[in-house]
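Listing S7. Sequence submitted for prediction.
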Amino acid sequence: MNRPVLALFCLLVGTSAGGAGTIKPADVQFSDGAVAASLTGAAGNVQEGRKVFISRKLGNCLACHANEDMAKQQFHGEVGPSLDGVADRWDEAQLRGILINSKETFEGTIMPAFYVDGGFARTKEKFKGKTILSAQQLEDVLAYLVTLKEQ
């Protein structure tokens, strides 16, 4: 591939972690707890979102939330509500807002803010300025959640 074509390809594709179209945590715009704009400008991947949801090292959503799709997984949580039918209770913008920072919707919740990189007390140095999930991982989890409708 010649350089001009490669440069154009890189400009158009970007990267999932920090592409030109990625909204930075400090620039996220909430409206009544909802975030209408995609953080990446790209659709999330349902299968990747499912992997993040189940991963103990990434989202770890399964530690607090259960849903029928995860019935065969060990250690479903009972701390948060079941996510069966969550896509019928909340629209995409509301779900995105809850994932980014649930405290914008649920005052006093213990659910972590998955796309906030500051303003925490006693943050270890290695975690300062970092989010739990990348913008693309958050959009992937969102894509998974919108598949969870009442049966």
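Caption to Listing S7: primary sequence and predicted structure tokens for the chain studied. The CA atoms of residues 43 and 139 lie 7 Å apart. Helices lie at 3-13, 46-54, 86-89, 92-100, 135-145.
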